[in-house]
């Protein structure tokens, strides 16, 4: 006889996971803001934003933020699915059915997000790749970790070699990813278009990134990170960090150092398609691992832990906060809102991120003091467990 189905209890939460999720939500917002307020898909940032403040802001985001926070969130996603499975098995519950419902609803939320709110949605990819992850979830921790590392390194090295050969034999002007004409069209639509016109542009922008040609790179850059995060969960790196503290510290330092080297490549060498690929595909995840381990190792320091704790409020409501950022930002910039698209710079957008995120921290702190789950999290859990959990804390 199965034990009653119940969501994760507050006492069972791993606080470093919530802090990392909150930190990732901030980093993702910093990067996404560039696309919220400008046709970032089509423009050369150093030509579009040419003031010293804007250039410095963009360089900071490019080195320390870009391509580092979706990998962190991807690893946390795999970590979370393994925890869900472990707890389901401990209670004698049918994990695969729960996981299928969880991923199906995430896919639906992602489709709504991409179609009706913002083209930069990542939830669709997470949901689809999550179903594939279920095929690997019975692997041991070491095997899952090793499989993830190999699936990441080997294909991406091959892609890097392909890009290097391409750069050597194809004229640079033919490899440019910038499209001033498309940027102008995007600017016009988001500034002045109707909701239907914006939806059509949103779909065009979404397909530019999420098409069959880009699928192999998209898969190789996200799915293996699920396995790396899942392997870390099985090895209990977050639950029992003290046992491997020395190893984790060395891994953190090595990841941060190597990641920084890759991230600086376009500034140390002549930038091109291959160098930019290496910067993001290897530098980003290495910094992500370093950031995550830094949080894990710092959590036992009372002072630092208190400083980081507000991030956990956002992390507990990570899905709600992610979607809220898209809703608020598109209402500020698109024509059916305030219509400020194209009117703000990289520096101004970053200041806006800090302001909105500060409000999210305060709002999330208020919310979690009264409710166990965020509104979207409550819906997601209810569908996963086929049970309406009590989400209101007792006064």
Automatic annotation (TrEMBL):
What are the record keywords, sorted?
Membrane, Transmembrane, Transmembrane helix
What region holds the DUF418 domain? Answer: 232-387
Keyword NADP listed? The answer is no
Transmembrane region(s): 21-43, 63-82, 103-118, 124-141, 148-170, 213-235, 247-269, 281-299, 319-338, 344-368
Recorded protein name is: DUF418 domain-containing protein
Species this protein is from? Cytobacillus oceanisediminis
């Amino acid at each position: 006889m199965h034990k009653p189905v119940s969501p994760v209890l507050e006492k069972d939460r791993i606080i470093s996971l919530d802090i990392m999720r909150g930190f990732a939500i901030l980093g993702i917002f910093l990067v996404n803001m560039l696309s919220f307020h400008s046709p970032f898909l089509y423009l050369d940032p150093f030509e579009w934003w040419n003031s010293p403040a804007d250039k410095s802001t963009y360089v900071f985001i490019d080195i320390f933020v870009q391509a580092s926070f979706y990998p962190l969130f991807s690893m946390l996603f795999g970590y979370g699915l393994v925890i869900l499975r472990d707890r389901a098995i401990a209670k004698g519950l049918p994990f695969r059915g729960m996981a299928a419902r969880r991923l199906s609803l995430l896919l639906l939320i992602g489709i709504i997000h991409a179609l009706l709110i913002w083209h930069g949605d990542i939830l669709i990819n997470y949901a689809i790749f999550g179903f594939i992850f279920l095929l690997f979830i019975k692997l041991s921790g070491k095997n899952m970790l090793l499989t993830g590392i190999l699936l990441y390194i080997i294909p991406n090295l091959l892609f890097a070699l392909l890009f290097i050969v391409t750069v050597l034999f194809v004229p640079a002007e033919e490899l440019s990813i910038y499209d001033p004409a498309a940027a102008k069209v995007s600017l016009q639509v988001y500034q002045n278009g109707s909701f239907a016109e914006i939806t059509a542009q949103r779909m065009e922008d979404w397909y530019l990134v999420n098409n069959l040609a880009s699928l192999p790179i998209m898969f190789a850059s996200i799915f293996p990170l699920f396995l790396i995060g899942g392997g870390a969960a099985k090895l209990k790196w977050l639950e029992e960090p003290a046992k491997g503290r020395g190893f984790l510290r060395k891994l953190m330092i090595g990841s941060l150092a190597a990641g920084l080297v890759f991230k600086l490549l376009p500034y140390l060498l002549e930038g091109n398609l291959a160098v930019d690929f290496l910067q993001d595909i290897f530098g980003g995840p290495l910094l992500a691992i370093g950031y995550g381990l830094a949080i894990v190792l710092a959590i036992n320091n009372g002072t630092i832990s208190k400083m980081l704790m507000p991030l956990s409020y956002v992390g507990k409501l990570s899905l709600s906060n992610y979607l809220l950022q898209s809703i608020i930002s598109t209402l500020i910039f698109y024509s059916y809102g305030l219509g400020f698209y194209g009117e703000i710079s990289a520096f101004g957008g970053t200041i806006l991120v800090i302001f909105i995120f500060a409000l999210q921290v305060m709002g999330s702190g208020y919310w979690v003091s009264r409710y166990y789950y965020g509104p979207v999290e409550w819906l997601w859990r209810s569908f996963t467990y086929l049970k309406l959990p009590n989400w209101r804390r007792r006064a």
